[in-house]
Amino acid sequence: MAVYTEVADEELSAFIDTYDIGKLLSYKGIAEGVENSNFLIHTETGHYILTLYEKRVDPNDLPFFLNLMQHLAERKLSCPLPVAARSGALLGTLAGRPAAIVTFLDGMWVRRPRPEHCEELGRGMAALHLAGADFNMVRRNALDVDGWRPLFNQSGERSNSVVPGLAEEITRELDFLEQNWPKDLPTGVIHADLFPDNVFFLSNKLSGLIDFYFACTDAFAYDVAICLNAWCFEPDGSLNVTKARAMMNGYRQVRPLSQAEIDALPVLARGSALRFLLTRLYDWLSVPEGALVTPKDPVEYLKKLRFHQKVETASSYGLSL
Amino acid sequence: MAVYTEVADEELSAFIDTYDIGKLLSYKGIAEGVENSNFLIHTETGHYILTLYEKRVDPNDLPFFLNLMQHLAERKLSCPLPVAARSGALLGTLAGRPAAIVTFLDGMWVRRPRPEHCEELGRGMAALHLAGADFNMVRRNALDVDGWRPLFNQSGERSNSVVPGLAEEITRELDFLEQNWPKDLPTGVIHADLFPDNVFFLSNKLSGLIDFYFACTDAFAYDVAICLNAWCFEPDGSLNVTKARAMMNGYRQVRPLSQAEIDALPVLARGSALRFLLTRLYDWLSVPEGALVTPKDPVEYLKKLRFHQKVETASSYGLSL
């Protein structure tokens, strides 16, 4: 649930008038998105999403995100298309915040993904990787293997208040990952946050990808590993191999995985599990008393990490090697 | 901000399929409304609002509210029109809650109403009073003069923690109002909560009235008194007579006020100020530590009450007597 910034009708109407999208007819704050304030707006030409970027987004990264969405949409990937103001700018200022308007995308995210959704996701993710191949901007992944230890240090020994012994367990895992993190895998634009709530479906067909505000330049197979964690585990913490196999099959129909990528998957899955464990741990320990948002449970990702530590080869994910 | 109930996509799609409005294409929780959960939904036939009624609404009152909106919309008053399911029912059940779908209304509420908005509001309110004249259902105003003392008793002496001496001041006002409350004024359907956020405008013309969940059968002039308090005071607590006069003029263009109604206005305005003081006081004292919603300031309505206590005749509101 998130509308962090209130916007007055006159101020918003004036902002809309700097675009060629007709007069503003209505706007509603949307109770979605954790990082930014989002409004569904209706103008004389249609429906759009207006986003005000709040403090967790670095304004210097916004041109990368907006140009990427424009690049992908031009290549027929179904994602929000940033709308340019009359001046040509994709980014404006509203209520003291960076602000952008993107096209509205129909579709709904699935609360309980089934194997057919995972296969669709695999195909869509591979299509994203291909469509981004000739995008000429680069953004380092701020949450890659080099970023995890500094991030962990902000939680440190306090981690033990969440799970006894957690600080030592994470330190051991960091040691392992820093020594064994794969290099030289095929790299390009990845979404890096392709959780179910960022993937829209219509009649069980993928209809769009949204929320590119973690997108960066990194190994394609790391995106696959993130989705393995985000889509293919059951609520009880076990891997659903049918879903994993479906996702991998879907991906490989569109973009083949090299042997190096397949071999790297267990380590990438450990790294991805640790990355979300660390950010959730930080949020869990940083949340003020009586906060608006309940932080997500870090233990879910600790369980996934422990699962991947026992995996020897990608065959455990349903992949034929 | 309010989406109290999460709804799964499959459950919602199945619910939509009981209506003749096409397949569900998208839905977004709206960060508006304090009492209920609201979703903006898009189907193959257009945009609608889906409301799940939460615990503050008595389910027994819902037929009154929904039939009233239908009645008013049929008489060309611009308000949400409840959509009937294939079964003919205006009310269904979703996620364990009573649920209804109404048509989507364009327009925006004005954060800083000007006199021309107040005149439009006056006309719209009078049109509502006329359109409701032949509505054949009755709902007692649960927050009328008989309800205020029991409501106050739930705050009681704790009121003094908000403003020293407040409990005694309210008790004196209750004594006065119970003895001097006007009887036999013209009565019918009133909105009873026509605050700026429930009135939509497009290009400074009133485009619709929403949120009929306090509507009831009471004196028309009491609705006028509520709007006097809600629309015509400045942030510093002073009455803006230009706005009050504009609202009264707008109202009388559509429905004349009788001499008895005009004479009763100062007492009705005191009663209306007390009614909102009491509910805000109750919310203020009842809010749990670290709650999601910041309660509205009761002192705003104490100041308005004190203003009306000094008013002798309705001429203070800009009315020619």
UniProtKB/TrEMBL annotation, chains A, B:
All residue ranges annotated as the Aminoglycoside phosphotransferase domain in the record: 27-257
Pathway: Amino-acid biosynthesis; L-threonine biosynthesis; L-threonine from L-aspartate: step 4/5
Coiled-coil boundaries: none
Pfam family membership, one: APH
EC number in record: 2.7.1.39
Catalytically driven reaction(s): L-homoserine + ATP = O-phospho-L-homoserine + ADP + H(+)
Keywords (A to Z) from UniProt: Amino-acid biosynthesis, ATP-binding, Kinase, Nucleotide-binding, Threonine biosynthesis, Transferase
InterPro entries in UniProt: Aminoglycoside_PTrfase, Homoserine_kinase_II, Kinase-like_dom_sf, Pseudomonas-type_ThrB
Gene Ontology molecular-function annotations: ATP binding; homoserine kinase activity
BP terms from Gene Ontology: threonine biosynthetic process
Family indicated by similarity: Belongs to the pseudomonas-type ThrB family.
Name under which the protein is recorded: Homoserine kinase
Organism: Roseibium suaedae
Lineage: Bacteria, Pseudomonadati, Pseudomonadota, Alphaproteobacteria, Hyphomicrobiales
Gene this chain is encoded by: thrB
